Amino acid sequence: MTDAPGDRPGRTSGPRQEEEATGMSKEQIGRFLARQGILIAFVLFIIGFTLANNRFLAPDNIMGVIRSSAILGVMALGVTFVVISGNLDLSVGSMMSFSAIVVLDLHDAIGPGLAIPAMFAMTLALGAFNGFLVGYLKLNSLIVTLGMLSAIHGLTLTYSGGKNMDIADKEGTWFGVFGQGTILGIPVPILIFALLAAILGTVLAKTPFGRKVYAVGGNGVAATFSGIRRARVVFFCYLMSSLCVATAGLMQASRSLGSQNTVGQGLELEVLAAIILGGASLMGGSGTIFKTVIGVLILGFIQNGLLLVGLQFYVQYVVTWIIIILAVWLDIAAKRGRLLSAIA
Amino acid sequence: MTEKPPVLRLENIVKTFPGVRALDGVSFSVLPGEVHALMGENGAGKSTLMKVIGGIYQPNEGRIFVDEKPVVMATPLESKAKGIVFIHQELSLAEELSVAENIYLGELPRKSFGRVDWATLYARTNEILGKLNVGFDARTRVGELSIANQQMVEIARALTQKAKAVIFDEPTASLTDAEKVVLFDVIADLTANGVGVVYISHRMEEIFKMTDRISVLRDGQYRGTLVTAETDQDEITQLMIGRSLDLTRNDRHSELGDVALEVRGLSCGHFYRDVSFEVRRGEVVGFYGLVGAGRTEIAETLFGLREPSAGTILLDGKKVRIHSPADAIAHGISLVPEDRKTQGLVLGMNCRDNMTLPQIDDLTAGPFVAEGAEVAIFDQYRDRLDIRTPSWRQIVGNLSGGNQQKIVIGKWLSMHPTVLIVDEPTRGIDVGSKSEIHNLIRDLAAHGYAVIVISSEMPEVLHVSDRIIAMYHGEMIRTFTSDEVTEDNLIQAISGDARDGAMAAAAQGA
Amino acid sequence: MAPGTLSKFLKGGAIWGFIVLELIFFSVAGEFLSLSDKAFMDFDNMLLLFKQSAPIGIVAIGMTIIMINGNIDLSVGATFALCGIVLLDSMSWPIFAGLGNWVIPVAWALALLTGILLGALNGLIVWKTGVDAFIVTLGSMLGYRGLVFMYNGEQPTSHLNWTLVDFAEAQFFGLHTPTWFLIVVTAALWYLMNRTVHGRNAFAIGDNREAAINAGIRVGPHMMINFMIIGFLAALSAVVFYSESGSVNPNDGQLYELWAITAVVLGGTKLSGGSGSILATFGGVVAIQLLRKGLGHIGAGTETVNLVIGLILIAVLFLDRQLNIKGKEALRV
Fold it and tell me: Which of A344, B6, C165, C232 is the most exposed place for a label (fewest CB within 10 A)?
């Protein structure tokens, strides 16, 4: 009944968005910066660090960065599904600790060949529980996964009795291949990350399921009115998340053939940071696997670059903070068509 | 009346957006003590004009006068400070706070150290509420009030603000008849005190009953001001759309086929009771009634969004159980929902993806979406429905209302349903698209679809339907064929014998 | 108006009912399972419980007003640690060497000021950039933690002042110093939220932001004030805690935000803002601490506490939804 501005061509939401954009060129510059801003920042970073330390762009250094980002990256791939569907998953950190501890314990008990599928099954069960609560019972995902963060941490401690887990015979197992091995000179963690990114990127961009994830996150009610079983889509997003977490747990356990109970602590928020850096909206409906990979790599290169110029690892926290705020702020400002005034 | 200077006057307001001239030299004035209707189709610029007055948009050209003094409304606050008060269609209340806190929102009386002066607050509020003669107290939590009473809280707020002009935007959209009476009394009170009232509405009967003058906008241009007592509906319509709208009764009869949908004794809680009807292939059945008569809920039940408490649904003579929209779609039922933006479309997605959403599982090549097939479907329905968009990549949120609605209709036509339900198919879209959609509905019936049309607009129902089912308070009152229906007996049926009782009930609730 | 009254009553009183249930359960179960002979509801035990609740409780009370306002603050743990470092480190700064024990109020003031500043920074960013508080404080959670590490590397920061320790462990009228802090904070914030214009406006902003803006309430400053308050309270929590313990580990306070949010949600405050209760959060804090102690009392390991609290949080959410559900009238979307 109302003639809202959205009823007319060329205008989207937000009452004030157009008023300051007096010329198309300014607006276009703003749009361009908004869309490509994070890539531009990434390139600037790389140039800066390369000038500061010529080792930065050395192939082995790049390989090292991707390798050390791989675990976080694999987790971020799964959480990307959850975020695009309009939810959060804060439980991935403690879930990763759980999978690492479980697979290490079972390794000595039943051997790696059985331990890995058993661990995957248990982790997927946790993801299914998340998905059941958020998808089918429609509970708030922030609180549910916050509760699961705590509950899974408790579960891990109960399982391990609070002790670190180590493989008894570190020499005589092939289990280290997932974290330490190389194929054709490329570290296996990188291959896993790349392979999963390619598969999940295709799933999200090219399959009916991926389309439904965007629809559910963009407008869950309209998706339901289009016959999409929203609960099921959300459920599978959480399953996807736990699948990636199990893979990350496997890589983590395999890398050091031992693990602490808190190895994944805090990763849930770093994962979100990477996804946000990639430009996904926490409101759902937007984001891509490619963007998430970029976000993960930015985090990794910042950390590496700061180390190379001689700063401590924790400086990256401060830098990440500033970059996240700037990235999201510029994104918001550009969408309002006010980027230039925001910068000025 | 015309001797007094206007409380609010706009002069040659121009507001442009990139590529659009939303307001093109609009002039408009409100005299003290008059009710001035502002009319125009959706997209004619009413909202933009209101946003200019409300300080949300700045005009590119033109001037605004309050009491004949030029003013600049740079923010909503400045507009409010100058005595311009809005009663919005969407209520802007904080439900967890008390009535008093809402009425004095942002202006709570203070004691020292920023403490709230509760005694003063409640005393002042109860004084105002007393004037309005409402049945609730200053301490009542707003969330506990009915929609109509919440609107009264907004009006009470307007009364505290020494308003010079009060702007009502579709105020009766969610009110019962009894509540409307109270609202009209309040408006009469305001005008008696010399306040100018701007009244935005699509409802002709209200316009003729309530207003003194009528200004019309079309395509962002000012089309003239009429004195209500000296004009008629045709003249207004002509100004609004530039031609008379020909919405005559449907006299075309399609070939009727077999019964596609049969409903027996369907009930759903307090929404509707014991509803039985059938729809044949090639037939358009209209559901007419007031908001809240249970029509939308019937559609929602048929589409699997509500669980019926009793009754059976038969499709092609076979009893079916529908527990979800996915079930409904599998049975060949489609629903073009009432609210396009929240139910019909994923506004952030592109046209093609929206259109193929219900059948995305079937449009595959191996495990992947067959994008070529998608584009083909989009192209087919873009041409058939004359959807105007530069490409399928266009984000749906950027289309006009009429084109958005066509995307929703295309989405469901491409599913080749047996039964197509359209709920308020032309709500909020321009007249041109309206008649296209009406023709389309007739055309679909001619092609053998069984169509159910739910509408609150009588001309629309009369125009498209072969049969009309009148509903009142969840009950089917009568079924008319297109031969026997007249505007009079239709109105009687939807308000009918039970009307007086309902009025009393509503008055008690208020 | 009848619907909702029952659920409102249940929700309002639920946390206290839950506490009573815990007391009964652990008292009875303790009779059979307890390793010690002491009764669970022993008076000293309860006093200790309040004392131990204080650091997290003070933060949770602050989190309540942030969430009523429609925001969230994930950075309280890092703020807590950073303020703790300022508190302890400043006591050994050479410029304060001549102050003797007067260094204590100075150190407190510095720590509290740090908290206010960190909170103000969060608030300012939320206000001026329009970025969601979840993202802003997620960022500053990392950033403030980085500052913590930059201060002293990975080494703990320690300074024991026995006067301070004595004060922190003292009892006035039977209650420990930290307990008094918690009580005063609870009372003050209850008054702030329910009796002052700022508090009522904060409710209005969380409830219907658009309406608040249209009514001329300046959303940004109110949010900034609330962030300053929670920064202050995180610092106060650090003051209470580190006065006694005397040593800050750079990882201290991790998961603090999660515990605080858990307590707030247990107390029934909505995530979406606009509704919530300071007193119920107090109840939530007590309930969590009771659970910790109770599980210890009946011999369950500390590791089960996380498990149980996580599941209770989810159960509370589920019950809340069941109480609010409109049954079959709701659309299945």
Answer: A344
